[in-house]
Amino acid sequence: MLQRVLTAYRHRRRERQVLSVTLDAARLRAGRGASYLDAADPGWHARLDAASLELSDGSHCVLGQLHGEFRQGLFRARILDLSSAPLASLSPVDLGFQARRDLGDEIEALDYAYLTRAWREEIASRTESKRLASRVPSQPVAA
Question: pTM of this prediction?
Answer without folding.
Answer: 0.79
